[in-house]
């Protein structure tokens, strides 16, 4: 099939999933056309089946705002016509699905619109009355809609009162990147972490919904019982708050703020536990990546996290803000080698059984086939 993919080309989980999906589809013989404002962050290798069409927005004095959505719709229509695309697979209802629907209207070539919801457009923008109706329109008028967890399907149906089918297709990891440690590389030495010290890890964009202050508080309570370090990967608006909290609690010497790093798996390979204590999370790709490397997760009982982190099997699920409980669970796990071994193995098994790339990519292929055959 010939498939156009549009996503935000940045470091966020939705861009990662869209790009990894495109790469795997290309390996399976499909022709993939990325239609994005920049080369996606994860599109690093060349492949004869992958094409890139840049959406570059011109700024004209008559426009108060750059017309990204219109330029994107127009570029999508141009690519559909020229390349005879079968499907436009867009990540996010606004603006991407709206642009794809417009492009479908603009072309003579029959193209189907498949929309994947990743959460923020529902859980954040869905509350905005100025956008609610257009999000609903984008969902209703797409040919197929998928969401990354059952929780997000339910939330979308409830919040936006949409009656149509929305299918859950979980996120996945590229097993060639995220898997148990095989190389000898050991970052512990590089960061002056003692071999017998435990490592807790958090990865996010440090938006307020990620509750990075709770992560630091949990760590401080764990550190009172177990010798450990906290590695914070990523960057964003609440970095300063997290740092200030670490200082206030007297653990700043043991918290490493490493900013955005490309090789997240290298850090997962020295981690004993991942903390994901968000107040909104439609899936929690960071948790899945950790589990794929055999790292158990403590996550909040929010959105899609309990569908990824199996409570008492691959980690623990705790209520939002329950810092003491999270710390208690962490200490219990870190000080019980048998339980830790069991949780690590179960994490690997759960990823293989439920979130393997081959299983998930096949589910997307089935969605494309169904919508194209529907005519
Ligand atoms: O979490 C973010 O701030 C980034 C956002 C994105 O668009 O990349 O992540 C969303 O999509 C990811 C991939 O499906 C999910 O793993 C995240 O849970 C989801 N974030 C939220 O729902 C807040």
From TrEMBL:
Q: Which InterPro entries match?
A: Glyco_trans_1, Glyco_trans_4-like_N, Glycosyltransferase_grp1, Thiol_BshA
Which parts of the sequence belong to the Glycosyltransferase subfamily 4-like N-terminal domain?
11-175
Question: Which biological process terms from the Gene Ontology are attached to this UniProt entry?
Answer: bacillithiol biosynthetic process
Please name the GO terms that the record assigns under molecular function: glycosyltransferase activity
- Cite a single Pfam family from the UniProt record: Glyco_transf_4
Domain Glycosyl transferase family: from-to ranges: 184-346
Q: What is this protein called?
A: N-acetyl-alpha-D-glucosaminyl L-malate synthase BshA
Annotated organism of origin: Marinococcus luteus
